[in-house]
Amino acid sequence: MFQGESIEVLPLQDGLVELRFDRRGEAINKLDARTVDEFRQATERIAASSDVRGVLVTSAKDVFIVGADITEFGATFQQAEADIARGVRASNELFNAFEDLKVPSVVAINGFALGGGLELAMLAPLRVMADTAQVGVPEVKLGLFPGFGGTVRLSRLAGLATAIDWVASGKPAKAPAALPGGATAGAAAPEARRDRALALLQRAVRGEIDWQAAQQRKRAPLALSKQEAGALVEAARTQVAARSGKHQPAALIALEMMAEAAGRDRAGALDLESPAFARVAKTQAAASLVQAFLNDQALKKLYKRHAREGRPVKQAAVLGAGIMGGGIAYTSALRGTPVRMKDIAQPQLDLGMAEAGKQLAKQVKNGRLAQAKADVIQASIVPQLDEAGFDSVDCVVEAVVESLEVKRKVLAALERSVKPGTVIASNTSSLRIDDIAQPLARPEDFVGMHFFNPVPVMQLVEVIQGAKTRDAAVSTAVGYAVAMGKTPIVVKDCPGFLVNRILTPYINAFVQLVADGADFEAVDRAMEAFGWPMGPAYLQDVVGMDVGAHVGDVIAAGYPQRMPALERNAVKLMVANKRYGQKNGAGFYRYENDPTGRPRKSAAPEAHALVATLQPQGRREFADAEIVERMMLPMVVEAAHALEDGVVATPAELDMALLLGVGFPAYAGGALKYADWLGLDRVVALCDKHAALGAPYVPTARMREMAARRLRYYPV
Q: Cβ(541)–Cβ(687) under 8 Å?
């Protein structure tokens, strides 16, 4: 009846047809422009045929439809808001045409029906889920909400309260949770899903199921008063605001729109959904979160390439226990790679094993692990005071003290204990790999693996390639990081590598602001309002003032022109007064443990008194906008330097490193995506405005060229 590249319509018995999604040459189905057009054509063929009595909708893939083709969003969202709204409304009419067929339809859902996939499934009066399937509308995670009629139909099928929860959270629902909500008519074993759906369709054709009433329900207003709809939105508002904040408005805009749409019929509700969707599509959050999704997909392709080129790590080792080493060992063992953990001191070994035990206990308490499984994982971490068994490991991660001399000494000894070809990785945060590798006989097997603290939580691992590091060693380290559930990003060897290098100008800008008279608490408030999870003073307290000062010194030595050691340095002043932050309860703030054992921050007048000694002109008030400019511009400039220096190969890798490594505000997308959003012409103009502050605010020649030519770091 119809044959396309993504859809085919096949005849069944008794006037029934099967509309099957099956993207040629692809592993999954998604709603790209071609598929949507083929859906239109298929619908028109079915509507025009007097022989068709019912439609079974299926997927030939392991999943139903994973959603829209996100790669098409960039070009679409470059359109004017009104044009986006018109395009969305036109797509809605196409979907309406299937919903308004004069014959019943049943959708058989397997795997995932997410976003546009669920929106399409809701066009039918009846749906059957495989009991292993998941449905949901995750668009909020991209700074959006459903735009193919999802807010309208889900509200009428599952009720406004459920629709609000699904749209605002973006969480998928498995069959048991989806069934009470009304999104599906029943569940079946995966192998019985199609037969169950076909049986329902046959019953509907025979008139045993009032499928027309089900369709009419989706066209009518909700049986709720305006006050009741408003109350549901109000109840959700606080939770949604806390989850998404002011910088990601999609969920709140969706809730307000859904409350108003509740009292309208389908046409009227869609008339509200389309312009609201267009509005959020033009937000900074949507642009950045969509790009971050695409960046993540690009990185995963790189992982797969490395996995093919590297050697699997079947047995690992950690040299240096303690909190960091214990965290690395735990993460390795948790994901199935047994690990030996060596230290020269029993107390450090005990500390490392205690850290692993603490993390496993959390998993058990939260119901993620059975105690028996946790015991097996714990047993796969072997603590030892010697190198016994190191000759059989595939990768060793060194996590000793951040001292060049110490690292050289222990690594030279380690090299003699492992077989040739074993990858040795240093968990250094700032020391150059080539400097550490000087005494090694096999520098080609040596890489950096910079884990971020706390290791069990932080996703990023910087894999650093030295001048002599062979590609296979890099691929092995990348593969091991992936096996640990981490996101590895390969960077070129340089002081501070990538994340700390770009973060240092940010911290230096904070130090300079404070020296110029700014209140460090005011700076924290301004940057947290901008979207950072914590302000720079609080961040230094969490990292550890001594650690931050050391990293700053290393990077200052590496980049003396752009990042020189600063006089009147508040961070070093805190170190000099033994105020190290959370680790000893005193930094820019005071810390006391709450009943759960977590450090609780409070104001520290004594810290303000110390800082005042660095402010010869006294305290000054800075507008939030000026604080943001002074803090963010050096990051953008240094990000441009890092990209131009080839520290990473692409803007995607750079921005993902910042999102995962330092909590760069998600709605801003990373330093380079943020520069694109501002426009490089504006970035350059703001840098020139602050030129008196010195080299960190001087754009690169390439930035000026890009600004003059209206170029971007990303295509759209």
A: no
Select from 460, 427, 429 the least CA-distant residue to 659.
460
Which domain range does residue 20 map to? Answer: 2-282
Mean pLDDT confidence for 379-394: 95
End residue of a domain, out of 493, 517, 535:
493
SS3 393: coil
**Strand 186-188 relative to strand 316-319, pairing:** unpaired
pLDDT in tens, 426-484: 999 889 999 999 999 999 999 999 999 889 999 999 999 999 999 999 999 999 999 99
Domain shared by 522 and 568, yes or no: yes
Catalytic residue among 450, 550, 608, 641: 450
CA dist., res. 613 & res. 678, Å (int): 37
- Say if CB 30 and CB 67 are below 8 A apart: yes
Are 166 and 119 within 8 A, CB to CB? no
Question: Where does residue 37 fall: left (phi above 0), alpha (psi -120 to 50 degrees), or beta otherwise?
Answer: alpha
d(CA 390, CA 628): 49
- Nearest-5° Cα angle at 256, 251 to 262: 120
Query: Is 450 one of the catalytic residues?
Result: yes
Q: Is the Cβ–Cβ distance between 54 and 205 less than 8 Å?
A: yes
Q: What is the pLDDT of residue 181?
A: 58
Q: Mind listing the pLDDT tens digit for each residue in 510-560? A: 999 999 999 999 999 999 999 999 999 999 999 999 989 988 998 999 999
Contact 128, 106 (CB under 8 A): yes
Residues forming a β-bridge with 174? 134
What domain count does the chain have? 3
**Which run of H or E residues covers position 136?**
strand 134-136
Instruction: Quickly list DSSP for 433-492.
Output: HHHHTTT-S-GGGEEEEEEPSSTTT--EEEEEE-TT--HHHHHHHHHHHHHTT-EEEEEE
Residues 233-260, buried b or exposed e (16+ Cβ, 10 A)? beebbeebeeebbebbbbbbbbbbbbbb
SS (H, E, C) 488-552: EEEEECCCCCCHHHHHHHHHHHHHHHHHCCCCHHHHHHHHHHHCCCCCHHHHHHHHCHHHHHHHH
Asked whether 435 and 404 are in contact (CB, 8 A), the reply is: yes
**Averaging pLDDT over each range in 167-181, 226-240, 382-396, which range is the top one?**
382-396
Model confidence at 183: pLDDT above 60 = no
- Asked if residue 321 and residue 213 are part of one domain, the reply reads no
Average pLDDT, the chain: 94
In angstroms, the CA 623 to CA 526 distance is 9
Is 277 in contact with 116 (CB distance < 8 Å)?
Answer: no
Name the pLDDT band for 178 (thresholds 50, 70, 90): confident
pLDDT 10s digits, 647-688: 999 999 999 999 999 999 999 999 999 999 999 999 999 999
- Whether residues 576 and 695 share a domain: the answer is yes
Residues 92 and 35 in one domain: yes
Q: Does pTM top 0.90 for this prediction?
A: yes
120 CB burial (10 A radius; 0-12, 13-18, 19+): buried
For the stretch 486-513, pLDDT in tens is 999 999 999 999 999 999 999 999 999 9
Is the preceding omega at residue 595 within 30 degrees of 0, hence cis? no
